[in-house]
């Protein structure tokens, strides 16, 4: 259950990061509200998952999902630039997430 909460927390991190971009510095109401609610949900789920997962593992997975998910959302929804170097960087992050999961006893 902790892993499921952690994955959902990471997805909410992507949501709030994307919404923050759409809020234009918190000048647009709806994206600003989505950002704040997304942050709260993400942090609460992260905290619950940390009850049974090691700190380093939980935090690394959470930020990794957020980083790679935001990278993908930026490309798909915002037309951000995609090149070989950025793809390699994302693959290195994913590799780190896999290794972190494999090293966890949970």
UniProtKB/TrEMBL annotation:
<keyword id="KW-0812">Transmembrane</keyword>
<keyword id="KW-0472">Membrane</keyword>
<feature type="transmembrane region" description="Helical">
    <location>
        <begin position="84"/>
        <end position="100"/>
    </location>
</feature>
<feature type="transmembrane region" description="Helical">
    <location>
        <begin position="27"/>
        <end position="47"/>
    </location>
</feature>
<protein>
    <recommendedName>
        <fullName>Guanidinium exporter</fullName>
    </recommendedName>
</protein>
<dbReference type="InterPro" id="IPR000390">
    <property type="entry name" value="Small_drug/metabolite_transptr"/>
</dbReference>
<keyword id="KW-1003">Cell membrane</keyword>
<keyword id="KW-0813">Transport</keyword>
<dbReference type="InterPro" id="IPR045324">
    <property type="entry name" value="Small_multidrug_res"/>
</dbReference>
<dbReference type="Pfam" id="PF00893">
    <property type="entry name" value="Multi_Drug_Res"/>
</dbReference>
<feature type="transmembrane region" description="Helical">
    <location>
        <begin position="59"/>
        <end position="78"/>
    </location>
</feature>
<dbReference type="InterPro" id="IPR037185">
    <property type="entry name" value="EmrE-like"/>
</dbReference>
<comment type="similarity">
    <text>Belongs to the drug/metabolite transporter (DMT) superfamily. Small multidrug resistance (SMR) (TC 2.A.7.1) family. Gdx/SugE subfamily.</text>
</comment>
<keyword id="KW-1133">Transmembrane helix</keyword>
């Amino acid at each position: 259950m902790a892993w499921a909460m952690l994955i959902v927390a990471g997805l909410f991190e992507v949501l709030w990061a994307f919404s923050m971009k759409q809020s234009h510095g918190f000048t647009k109401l709806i994206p600003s509200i989505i950002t704040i609610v997304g942050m709260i949900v993400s942090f609460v789920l992260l905290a619950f998952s940390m009850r049974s997962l090691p700190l380093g593992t939980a935090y690394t997975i959470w930020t990794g999902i957020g980083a790679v998910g935001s990278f993908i959302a930026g490309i798909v929804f915002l037309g951000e630039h995609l090149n070989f170097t950025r793809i390699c960087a994302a693959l290195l992050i994913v590799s780190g997430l896999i290794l972190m999961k494999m090293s966890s006893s949970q």
